Amino acid sequence: MSFLTLGHRGVMGVEPENTLRSFVRAEEAGMDAIELDLHLSKDGALAVMHDAVVDRTTDGTGPIAGKTLAELRELDAGKGERIPVFEEVLDAVKAPLQAEIKDVAAARALAEVILARDLVGRVEVSSFHDEAVTEIARLVPGVRTVLIASRWSGDIVERAKAAGAPTLALNIRRLTLEVVEQAHAESVKVLGWVVNTQDHLRLARALNLDGATTDFPEIRRTGRFTA
């Protein structure tokens, strides 16, 4: 079974997260796919940022939803980088992308881009929200989806199946072999996040995970040789 390594918000351990600089670095490091986050701006642009507010990762303040794309463009997202929109990431790198959406509205906006640019084969869509996963699958036939969870109960595999998600992305610190085996028995893949240490990488291997999300390029390199 191949082990996939996903760059978390690019490679946020060494570059400003969710910036073109970070995504290019992730591609140069040979990541199998690049994970990013999407929020809608006030005027409906798919802004690439993890938080709902700009305070932590830029020199601005306030919610993304309260700012136009032009206003977001004025902010420094680290090392002089600007907040990109999803379409810019598509053009900046060639790697497969895993796009995390926060709600149904973002699902609808993302669906328009995927359909317009024929991205079903390149873009996988993830979310913590079952309804967002269900909505993107309804809008984009054949799109690959991922249900994310930090904490979960015994029905997590059933939730993934009900949402039509063939993959789960689960917090490595809470993952157990039992959950992984339950998922695999139902043909559901399991990714672990975030794997940033050799101990977590060994754990990912021991749990027979299908892949892991990491902040650091070296995890991809060493992951190829970790038994």
TrEMBL record:
Signal sequence extent: none
PROSITE patterns: GP_PDE (PS51704)
Pfam family, one: GDPD
Matching InterPro entries: GP_PDE_dom, PLC-like_Pdiesterase_TIM-brl
Residue ranges occupied by any GP-PDE domain in the UniProt entry: 3-224
SUPFAM superfamilies, sorted: PLC-like phosphodiesterases
Protein name: Glycerophosphodiester phosphodiesterase family protein
